Amino acid sequence: MKTGFRLHALAGLVFVAVLLPAGTAVAYERAPLLEQVASHFAHRPAEVHCPSMPEWNNDPIWGSDPHPQRAWGYTDMVHDFIVMQPLLCAGAIAITDTKLPSWQRATGALVLVHEAYHVRLWKSRWSEAKVECQAIRHFEEGAELLGASVQIANDLLPYALAAHARMVRLYPSYRQPRCRLPLWAVPMTP
Q1: Which of 115, 155, 163, 187 is most buried (CB neighbours < 10 A)?
Q2: Has this prediction a pTM greater than 0.85?
Q3: Do the beta carbons of residue 136 and residue 181 sit within 8 Å?
Q4: Would you give the distance in Å from CA 86 to the centre of its chain?
Q5: 128 close to 77: Cβ distance less than 8 angstroms
Q6: Rounded to whole angstroms, how far apart are CA atoms 137 and 43?
Q7: Of 44, 130, 36, 133, whose CA–CA distance to 92 is shortest?
Q8: How far is it, in rounded angstroms, from Cα 128 to Cα 118?
Q9: Where do the H-state alpha helices sit in the chain?
Q10: How many separate helices (H) and strands (E) can be counted in the chain?
Q11: 8 A C-beta contact, residue 84 and residue 72
């Protein structure tokens, strides 16, 4: 009797498992370097997802946004993982690759640092303005941790400042009035 009950129970579990909808398959790429840099700013392990463009467009959070160009990345604040727009993931990963546009590499690094501050357990993690201020202030450090030399980080800074300026102009909730922006060092000697 016990054996028959176990077989029926096992068959029932298999039947239920087959009928249950499959969980969302996550095929996101994970880049160890991006996770290492994000973890540095988060002060704890940080998971970074780099989706393909179709995955990004079908993302349940941003795929339905009427203005998808607005989304550069996001942090799932419940599960503490970062998802970055595919071009920006590629830019951050290849920050020293001059074949990629400077805006892509700079914005990728800026977004990575920004999202890492959302993962960080600090009182301001929910404040876009405070997180963005920290991201732009630590942009050069982030770029260097991604492999950029001091010179490349400085060369990319104007692009990061432009991305930051665009963001705070279009989305005032990202603006911290007293944020001290880094200064670009003119790359010339007297």
Answers
A1: 115
A2: no
A3: yes
A4: 10
A5: no
A6: 17
A7: 36
A8: 8
A9: 2-19, 32-42, 53-57, 86-93, 102-119, 128-137, 139-145, 150-170
A10: 8, 3
A11: yes
